[in-house]
Design goal:
By secondary structure, chain A is an alpha/beta fold. Helix content of chain A is about 45%, strand content about 20%. Classes of the chains: A alpha/beta (about 325), B mainly alpha (about 375). At the A-B interface, helix 1, strand 2, helix 3 and helix 4 of A face helix 5, helix 6, helix 15 and helix 18 of B.
């Protein structure tokens, strides 16, 4: 019996391995099943957030329109070091272009700079690296989005009221920017933030924090969620409270993914959501230009759109 | 530390009636990495061949993984050469797993003593933060910062160890508490932001990070390996010697094999446990320094979930979670197997879902093999 265990185990491992390996080569064609002129490596920092899933989807959809390119995706599972490794691996593989959606700017600066110096163009999405050793950065403007959110609440509440702010992970720059932008937006009005909490972008954290806010403050006029799930979680908490406060409080969120924020606005859960573009389509377009020998600007800033009950059917309104 | 020859707890055990349980256990089931000595005492051809197989089992598994890597290597789009077989890839594998390797080294000690340490991932985060704050923020020299960070790690481990030995908490619970608390401390030290140059106005470093950060992560001229990798390799080899040849090492096996018998035979179980958890967290502190150097900043979220990889590496190597059986060299093989599997999957851009399934299957298979061996 004993004698068979190791070979059997190794066999099982080998079969499991080869099965996956083969499926992989078939789907991404690493060995060149489908002849594409250019191979693009895409390192995504994690696929746990819906926003990032959508980003990958947008890239894949846009790339599917162009048979001359093929995109190989890797998921760094929210670990900067894994992402460093992936950038190195892509460079070693000799891809024609790199798209990186960094978890954090600084750790990726060096591997990206190494690839860039070795002649591989790098398109960075969303997060600024240190220095300028990359080809192009495509990014929405979180400060602007936060400011617009603030102004929207000033308008709808008539310049005064109590606000609950459910923040994203405050050690990350998007959350810091969404907060500082919002503070700019409400400056000069009588809006006050009566309660705020770091909800790490997570709906169930937001729901819990909102429960505390509801218990402490009889009068809440609006909830500003740093992302749509937070705002949605807050709505659910208010609904669960059973005093009908979900109807009087204005809930606003950010991101406006078709599967989340926009749907919540349509359903009357959120008063407004502000689009944070995934950059996916723009990334592929920029990549094609670079590969075709055209020059692209170093920084491509993407605007935002507001979705409210009135304009959601028309696809929002550009701000 | 005294050498084994001088105090020889095992021989003392054999003469004391109470300790004989430990000895019997160890006689019939020798730790695989000491089979050469153990099996000679036992004699018996059949026993010896099985033991020999034991010793090489990990190595065979590793070779199998390596062959898989050779078969499934992608080829460079420029040169057409297999990427997996390049020297750079091989060195990268060690470098990329040096942090997990350091954690697994400490974890092996704890697991040999029959415990578990869930807090190492958080201690990595805490120590990475502390190291970045002292060097980037306050501008300390490495000679000051490194010892302070290591002491912080040792202290965290000593607290867990004390909770376990003095207050009789289960290791799982005590280190779970430390896991949560250390993460909290990491966030406290961070002041709510990642520590990188110019993140705060008063930081000593405004532009780049200290030279040490770069030095740790770049291959040394002439040696090829990076100091991070060397730190891991030296640590695991030193601890392999400690575990095999020192009194402390023998006591670890005795405590893990049968704690009560070890206590009755005069081993200070409490102190040894505190020392073991402190050492484990000390290695986590080293991993924290490596982490800060590799990330080029201090991230309070660093090391999240690392404890699971460390435990998996130890288990895949063949050290028993029940304690008292296993060894450091087995862990080295376990770390290598994990590192190579990860690299092969990553090189082939295997999506996360099947990758996690494969990793789970491999851990299960490794444990199955272990159980088979025990019969």
């Amino acid at each position: 019996m004993k004698r068979f265990v190791i070979p059997a185990a190794i066999l099982v491992a080998a079969v499991a391995f080869s099965g996956c390996g083969k499926k992989q080569t078939a789907s991404t064609g690493t060995t060149g099943a489908a002849k594409a002129k250019w191979v693009i490596g895409m390192s995504q920092c994690n696929l746990a957030e819906p926003y990032r899933v959508q980003q990958n989807k947008d890239i894949a959809e846009e790339a599917a329109k162009h048979p001359e390119i093929r995109v190989v995706f890797k998921d760094a599972q929210n670990n900067s070091e894994t992402q460093q490794n992936q950038v190195k691996e892509f460079a070693q593989l000799g891809v024609n272009l790199l798209i990186v959606s960094p978890k954090e700017g600084r750790p990726l600066t060096k591997p990206v700079a190494d690839a860039y110096k070795a002649g591989i163009p790098v398109v960075v999405l969303e997060r600024q690296l240190v220095g300028d050793q990359f080809t192009c950065l495509i990014s929405p403007d979180n400060v602007q989005i936060g400011r617009e959110a603030g102004k929207f609440l000033v308008r709808t509440l008539g310049g005064k009221g109590s606000i609950v702010e459910l923040k994203g992970l405050m050690t990350s720059s998007p959350a810091q920017d969404r907060h500082s932008g919002f503070m700019e937006g409400i400056k000069g009005s009588k809006l006050t933030i009566v309660f705020d909490a770091d909800c790490a972008w997570l709906e169930d954290h937001a729901r819990r924090e909102m429960n505390s806010a509801l218990a402490r403050f009889p009068q809440i006029d609006a909830v500003y969620g740093h992302n749509d799930p937070s705002a949605h979680g807050a709505y659910m908490a208010a609904q669960q409270e059973g005093r009908g406060r979900e109807k009087t409080i204005k809930f606003i969120g950010i991101d406006a993914l078709p599967t989340e924020g926009v749907r919540y606005v349509r359903g009357g859960i959120l008063s407004a959501t502000f689009q944070y573009q995934t950059c996916g389509k723009e990334a592929v377009q920029a990549a094609l230009k670079i590969l075709g020998g055209e020059r692209v600007p170093k920084l491509i800033r993407l605007g935002t759109r507001i979705y409210t009950k009135e304009n959601v059917a028309k696809g929002g309104e550009k701000l | 530390m005294r050498l084994r020859r001088r105090s020889v707890p095992c021989k003392q055990l054999s003469s004391s009636r109470q300790g004989s349980a430990v000895l019997r256990l160890r006689r019939t089931k020798p730790a695989p990495d000491e089979i050469a000595g153990g099996s000679k005492q036992l004699g018996g051809q059949r026993r010896w061949t099985l033991d020999a197989l034991d010793a090489y089992r990990g190595l065979i598994a590793f070779i199998a993984v390596f062959i898989l890597g050779v078969i499934f290597t992608p080829r460079s789009l420029e040169t057409g050469l297999p990427v997996f077989l390049s020297l750079r890839t091989q060195l990268d594998i060690l470098y990329e797993y040096s942090e997990y390797g350091l954690l697994a080294t400490g974890m092996t000690l704890v697991i040999l003593s029959g415990g578990i340490d869930l807090s190492v991932g958080s201690v990595v985060g805490l120590c990475a933060m502390l190291f970045a704050l002292l060097t980037i923020g306050l501008g300390w020299s490495m000679a000051g910062a490194v010892p302070v960070v290591i002491v912080a790690g040792l202290a965290a481990g000593a607290v867990s160890g004390t909770l376990i030995s003095r207050f009789r908490m289960q290791p799982f619970v005590a280190t779970l508490a430390m896991m949560v608390a250390a993460r909290g401390f990491a966030k406290l030290v961070s002041g709510g932001a990642k520590v990188q140059p110019a993140a705060e106005r008063w930081y000593a470093f405004k532009q780049g990070t200290p030279h040490f950060f770069r030095w740790m992560t770049q291959s040394l001229p002439g040696v090829v390996l990076q100091p991070c990798t060397i730190l891991f390799l030296v640590s695991i080899v030193v601890m392999a010697v400690v575990v095999r040849y020192t009194t402390y090492g023998r006591r670890l096996y005795a405590i893990g094999g049968n704690e009560e018998a070890a206590r009755l035979s005069g081993i200070k179980v409490g102190w040894n446990k505190v020392a073991t958890y402190a050492l484990c967290a000390g290695f986590a502190a080293l991993a924290g320094i490596v982490n800060a150097c590799r990330q080029d900043m201090g991230d309070p979220e660093a090391g999240f979930g690392f404890e699971l990889d460390a435990i998996a590496a130890v288990v895949i190597g063949g050290t028993s979670l029940m304690g008292g059986r296993g060894g450091m060299m087995l862990t080295l093989i376990g770390v290598l197997i994990m590192a190579y599997i990860n690299k092969i999957l990553s090189l082939n851009a295997v999506p996360i879902a099947p990758r996690m399934i494969i990793q789970g299957a491999i851990i299960a298979i490794a444990v199955l093999i272990q159980q088979q061996r025990r019969r």
